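Q: Give me the 3D complex with zinc ion.
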Amino acid sequence: MKRYSAIALVAVIAFLFPAGADQESLQGFTPTSSAAEQQWETKYRALPDASKDLENDRRLSARPHHVGSPYDKDNAEWILANYKSWGWDAHIENFDVLMPTPKTRLLEMVEPTKFTAKLQEPALAVDPTSGQQSEQLPTYNAYSADGDVTAPLVYVNFGVPDDYDQLDRLGVSVKGAIVIARYGGSWRGVKPKVAAEHGAVGCIIYSDPHEDGYNEDDVFPKGPMRPPDGVQRGSVMDFASYSPGDPLTPGIGATKDAKRLTLKDDIAITKIPTLPISYGDAQPLLAALTGPMSPAAWHGSLAIPYHVGPGAAKVHLVMKSNWDMKTLYDVIAKLPGSDQPDEWVIRGNHHDAWVNGAEDPVSGQAALLEEARSLGALWQEGWRPKRTIIYCSWDGEEEGLLGSTEWAEAHDKELQQRAVAYLNSDSNGRGYFDVGGSASLARFITGVARDVQDPESHVSAYQRRVDMELARAHSEEDRKEIRGRADLHLGPLGSGSDYSAFLDHLGIASLNLGYGGEGDGGIYHSVYDDFYWYTHFSDTDFMYGRALAQTAGTAVMRLADADLLPFEFTDFADTIHTYLKEVKKLADDSRDEALERDKELDDGVFSAINDPRHPKVAPPREAIPPHLNFAPLDDAADALTRSAQRFHSALAKAWPAGVPPATLQDLNQKLIQSERRLTTEQGILRRSWYRHMIDAPGVYSGYGAKTMPGVREAIEQKHWDEADSEIVRLAKVLQAESALIDSASADLEPASH
Ligand SMILES: [Zn+2]
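A: Here is the predicted complex, encoded as structure tokens.
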């Protein structure tokens, strides 16, 4: 297709003009401005220093620093002083948010034997910060409802809706029960939500060694994986159904005098008490279960038969929180734009952690600070970005993206006007470059990744990423697709880090960047995510921290300096076609499945194969899904492809001759608005905080993105009329996007000059 020839052409140019002789201009730059930019960028990439990155990490992770702790504030003030010393105009912005901390936690088995869970991660002699117990937040799930319940225990695998369908087939109900779910398979907050919807009265979430324990590698401190008493803390706020951020101030900044909901209102906390535990604590509970055997796919790596229950095991769960208000410390730093000060390029990573957090988030924050130091040094040398650059060190990400959401809500009007893009990171490690986000920036970030060297292989970060994808591809077709693609494939973001308010709520084009995939571990949200673990098992010499600083800093500079913002829409149009194919297949598959199930019921298949010693209930008959009318979306997606190609060729023709400054300014405004056009005022049905119509977190998957969420979730939840109306609504959004791109093309085409 078209882009095969584009790649071939680039290859020829590169062959005729080897690097250094006559470099190709950067996307969005003229030959002159490109040469200047490349000089500054080359200087920049020599500045981030791995040893400074390491010292940043050591300092920020030296003590526990969750929201409301003394060291959280101390870190924020240290970060602020640094920004200022590097020449940035910086300040701390405070918000007051609801942040529950545990008051009472108890989990005991009362039948058939007595066992009390430890709920405590032990200090390890080799690991100096693991013993800072007076400052550590106990193991808990923030925003769990208060409760004191005693009930039979039922094992529900990952606790996602499909697992409950399987339980139905086993004839097991969780009504009145306490469920025990393992981490994985969904965002953790989905587990208590679905459990409560099925009538459970309590929810325990444990880390099975299958996911991040000895099934993977040696456990800490011998290896990187989760030890028997390691616990994953984490928020269970139902942000996907409500909104992230402070639950008392949805949609508005949680400033001192903001109008607040109360705890009695319908807010994003769980309906049932929820507590996370280690596999050390989970093993006796699971081992005591009787009742049917669970399906094979439900078996973890503990040396027990994974029975489902209920039977024998009865547990007593108490969870009570102090429902206090805590102050957030967002550190915001600016370098003013020389040319277009009202166009903002925003970069962020959170600084708060569950405990010490040397990996999450400090490995990302430490790199971000190296970027800020290096950009400050370039400024001293005379570099002046065209656009304003804003660096954000967020607080309160862990509890529910609190700091970034409150800041974005407090500044929503300005951001909608001015934000060019938001670049996020959240932790970093050794391995491959990874990027997700707005497809209109795929070409841009691919260009950046081509200019950064991977520290281990010394090929570009882009090349190593593509080679890894090729090596891991499962089919010839996949390999062909990877080789044929000009740009990196950007997965959708959904939610789960600080880009959510920017992308999902305000429609600001966003990217999430990081390295990882070599040397993963099992210390996530535990006391063992600390400097000792990170410097023994992850990016021990911070060379990938340096690579992240080089990558993200280059991206920030290039966005801030470009003459024409480097948005591009053919990748976006391709992505829309891919999503459309997926939702059509989803609709077809659900109809085929229903037809097949009914046929098998008619033919008596379920009763014929039923094992009387392990009886199963036949699935219920359901209405056959109707055919949906996808025509409006097909038309809109095709229109988008045409508009994207028109813009591409209009630009290719107009650019070499030079585009007048007034036209450029108008074009940049349109490009800035291109992601906003994907939002609607009404937002997604039943969760209007989410306004982006292409990307949202899934109500039943949590962080996992649901693309075309209105259409997709209507199909998944079998709301057929709604699916048809959502198709029409989404088609209108895409048509408006096409119209915007067309008007940008018209600015570039000869007749309009
Ligand atoms: Zn994080």
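A quick observation: Residues 347 and 391 are 5 Å apart (CA to CA).
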